[in-house]
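Open question from group meeting: does this chain pack into something compact, or does most of it stay loose? Before anyone orders reagents, we agreed to write out a predicted structure and look at it together. Recording both the input and the output here so the notebook holds the full record.
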Amino acid sequence: MLGKGRCAGKGVVIEVGKPISQVPLMPDAPVLLIVDDGPQARGVVEGELRKRYGTDYEIVCVGSAEDPLRLLAKLREDRRRVSIVLAGSDISFGTELLARVREFHSTAKRLLLVDWQFGPPPEPILEAIALDHIDAYAGRPTMVPDEAFHLS
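Structure tokens returned:
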């Protein structure tokens, strides 16, 4: 028998015993935005984030052609909080996009996703950190689940 209960005083009714993936998302859930041109790479990142954070955040995935800056502006107009923007593609596109995120969402964290994980970071990444264009960088998840990705 499934019972009903209220979730943390938020007024959200959930069914006890219902799988987490079927619990409705809070209407004003903060957004985790993934911007990456590679559908497969974007899908792996999306899957990792949805599994771990999907009940508390709205996970939004777009490619660079879908105008992520316009999306950030729309989210600001809708008074939606963006917690993290993860940008992949190539280093120059990712750092340029992340440098502009705070024009729209001043408290959003900016994470550059890179394809390598060993050795010192390339000069453009160090420069982007020094100029406060990105907050951090992390290797893309390479396996499911990827705990190293979640720890970064």
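Observations to bring back to the group:
Confidence is low (pLDDT under 50) at residues 1-18.
The two ends are 40 Å apart (CA to CA).
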